[in-house]
Amino acid sequence: MIDDAGFITAPVSGALQPEFRGLVEEVVNRLTLRLGDALHSIYLYGSVAQGRALPGVSDLDVCLILKRPPTEAENRVIAGIDECRGRYPGVACKTDVDVGTLADALAPENLYSWGYWLRHHCRCIYGDDLSVRFPPFRPSKHIALALNGDVMTVLEKYIADLNKEETGIQRRLLRRAAARRLVRATNILRGDNDADWPDTLEEYANRFRRRYPCRAADIDYFVRESRNPGNDTRDFITRLRQFMTWLGGCCADIRYNPAPHSLTDSDPQ
Q: How far apart are CA 2 and CA 196, in angstroms?
């Protein structure tokens, strides 16, 4: 979304939705207690940060900035943060955590990635708010590429995890996350002078439909998967790969290096 001056809008301020306050406080308390001096700041992003989350449907998206790279023990603390949901059943579907270092967040070469992300997507809930160090950004293809240049590698990881995962619930979560990532990544197809900036998944999809009406059925499928994944994972992977191939052919600035059939980590939504 764009404000009257032509800048991309920032997350809303004010109190969090009442349904999510207890869980957010639990997450902050655990992280501050167990990470100690290594922790610089904590942020929310996504629907909870924007004040439009749905209890039992939305994820809790958290971004951590550390003063240095995490130790193995600190990585275990971060990986276990989803346990906080156990005290607040029916609030968040899952918890995703992005982690960065202070040096990376402030590096000039990361202006269009970390700088944009902190300024326009992250809502500080603990520590020194880095978002105020960056000026507001205008819509730019540089930002879209900085955020999505690795989308092919990320989607390959999702495919590898889907091939390994046997639990139906986990497969649905992976498909939902992969579909959301793909829909958002279509922003890399924007023109250099485009002045709009999508925010919700439907806005990304509408933008794509207007530009590629012959591919509307494809984007409709992935929007449905982002909300209510179906049962045919084989078909999902096939359609995902087909769209990835088409997208890679449209944009030479993204890196498409198909990975082996087994990879480990997944990208946060």
A: 7
pLDDT tens per residue, range 176-233:
999 999 999 999 999 999 999 999 999 999 999 999 999 999 999 999 999 999 889 9
Q: E-assigned strands of the chain?
A: 39-45, 60-66, 95-101, 123-127
- Determine the Cα–Cα distance for residues 52 and 75; give it in Å rounded to an integer: 30
Q: Is the pLDDT of residue 266 over 50?
A: no
Q: Nearest-CA neighbor of 179 among 214, 217, 221, 212?
A: 221
Q: Is residue 2 part of a domain?
A: no
Torsion of CA 46, 220, 249, 141, to 10 degrees: -40
Q: How many structural domains does the chain have?
A: 2
Pairing, β 39-45 against β 123-127: antiparallel
Q: Which residue from 200, 207, 196, 267 is spatially nearest to 227, judged by alpha carbons?
A: 200
Distance CA 179, CA 173 (A): 10
Structural domain containing residue 178: 147-250
